[in-house]
C-alpha cells in the first residue's frame, strides 16, 4: 500500500510542478523591452519609469524621487512574484489609471525569467548576499 501512495504523490507533485525553471539570463534579454523606461543596477536612475532595484517587497508607487500616478500610489499593491506577474501581463488592467503604456508580456516563461532577473538586484542595485 505505501509504495502506491508514494508513487501517487510523486506523480501528483510532478504534474503540478512548472515545466521550466526561471532563468535570469533569459530574463535579462526580456528586460531589454523595459530599458526604454526602466533601469536596474548600482548606477540606475529614474527615467520615464522608476528604477526597478529591490522591486520585490516594495509597495507600488513608492520609489524615492519618481513621480507616480495617483492610481499607482493608491493601488495598495506590494510587489511579490504573483502580483508582478499579473501586472506584467497587462499593466493597465492590473492598475487602472497607470501611466505605463507597455502592452504586457503574454508568455508566462518570459515573465518568470524577467522576475528571476529582477530578483538579482537589491535596493542598492547590488545582488543580494
The domain tally reads 1
Task: Give the biggest sheet.
Answer: none
CATH superfamily: Cytochrome c-like domain
> Helix/strand/pairing class, anyone?
mainly alpha
Low-confidence stretches: 5-18
Provide the CATH topology.
Cytochrome Bc1 Complex, Chain D, domain 2
Radius of gyration, rounded?
A: 18 Å
Q: What is the distance, rounded to the nearest whole angstrom, between the alpha carbons of the first and last residues?
A: 46 Å
Individual helix count: 6
Strand content: under 5%
Report the top-level CATH class.
Mainly Alpha
Structure description:
- Helix 2 packs across helix 6 (108-118) and helix 4 crosses helix 6.
- The chain has a single domain, classed as Cytochrome c-like domain (Cytochrome Bc1 Complex, Chain D, domain 2, Orthogonal Bundle), CATH 1.10.760.10.
- It has helices at 2-16, 24-31, 70-73, 81-89, 91-94, 108-118.
- It contains 6 helices and no strands.
- It is mostly helical and 129 residues long.
- The longest helix has 15 residues, at 2-16.
Amino acid at each position: 500500500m505505501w509504495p502506491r501512495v508514494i508513487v501517487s504523490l510523486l506523480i501528483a507533485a510532478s504534474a503540478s510542478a512548472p515545466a521550466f525553471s526561471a532563468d535570469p539570463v533569459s530574463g535579462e534579454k526580456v528586460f531589454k523591452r523595459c530599458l526604454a523606461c526602466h533601469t536596474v543596477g548600482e548606477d540606475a536612475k529614474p527615467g520615464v519609469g522608476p528604477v526597478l532595484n529591490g522591486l520585490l517587497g516594495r509597495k507600488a508607487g513608492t520609489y524615492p524621487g519618481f513621480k507616480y500616478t495617483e492610481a499607482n500610489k493608491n493601488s495598495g499593491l506590494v510587489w511579490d512574484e504573483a502580483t508582478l506577474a499579473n501586472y506584467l501581463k497587462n499593466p493597465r488592467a492590473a492598475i487602472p489609471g497607470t501611466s505605463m503604456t507597455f502592452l504586457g508580456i503574454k508568455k508566462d516563461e518570459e515573465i518568470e525569467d524577467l522576475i528571476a532577473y529582477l530578483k538579482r538586484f537589491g535596493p542598492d542595485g547590488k545582488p543580494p548576499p
